Every structure is written in C-alpha cells, then in structure tokens.
Amino acid sequence: MSKKFNIDFEPVKLLDLPQFIKKLQEAFSIAVKEKFGVTTPIPSEKEVQTSYHAKGAETYHIVLDGNCIGGVTLTIDEKTQYNSLDLFFISPEYHSRGLGLAAWKAIEAKYPNTIVWETITPSFEERNIHFYINKCGFHIVEFFNEHHIDPNITCSEIHSSEPVLGMDSYFRFEKVMK
Q1: CATH entry, 7-176, from 3.40.630.30, 3.30.2110.10, 3.90.226.10, 3.40.50.720
Q2: Sign, CA torsion 106/82/51/135
Q3: What pTM did the predictor assign?
C-alpha cells in the first residue's frame, strides 16, 4: 500500500522565480551530468521565464508539510481542456520517495476537467520516461529528432547558436483522461 502524501500548491510569485529556476536547474542537471559529464544549467533562465509568462501558464511550488519539495509549470486551456505539463521537478533531496507520483496525482485532482495532458522529455532522460509511462500512465505519441522536427519550433530556434543540451531528440507524451 502506497503512502498518502498531503501535497499542496503555492503560486510562484515573480519575486520567487530566481529561486524556482535555481531549484529546477539543480534537479534537471543530475541526468545531464550523468549522460554528458557536464553541469550546464538547463533549462535556461530565459526558457523558464518564457514558460512562466506564457498564456494560460500556472506555476507552483509543490509543498509537503509546509516544505517546498519541487515545482511545476502547467499551461491550462480552459476552453479545450488540452493541458500541458511544461516543467516539473522534485528537488533531489526528495527523490525516490514516491513524491513525484503523489504530486502528479495532486495535479490531476486539481484539474479534473482535463481531457488530455501533454508533456515532453529528452530521449536520454530514462528516469523521466519511466516515470511518465510506467508510473503516471502517459503514452509516447511522437519522437522529435533531426528527421522529424517539432512543428512548434521556429527556424531560428533550430539553427540557434546556443542549442539546448540534450534536446536534439525528445519524446512527446500524452495522457488521455476522459
């Protein structure tokens, strides 16, 4: 029987954003260091700010018993209810305790009208792939790579002088709720 966690969400204020970005980058850097041997901060501060300010974006601290254990940025489309999990992390000191799944279930409960959830993750990020498929019930629906470019990426982003480490190939996942 799995343990019941009381997960809460507190909105990330603009003043909190630098600390949110730092914690997010710390969590994401683990897999990057394991795979590439470098500690390049990803996603970039600019990418996180873009997500934070996007139309329909909701960014929260994930809170357990008064302690911030992670964070999430969602894009909620009230009209279509096709929603997106844009950024999601549990701080490394809280890994392997079932808190990611508990947080995901709390997100689902917070948005019960969602028809489809969508997210992406780099193809090298085995821990995330396992989590989304085997724990959360997502399915891989698309694989973006040099032969199949994401249509949502602009030409200038494809040819950027600063490519995003590890994002040369990634999976798009969906979870149909209804």
Answers
A1: 3.40.630.30
A2: positive
A3: 0.87
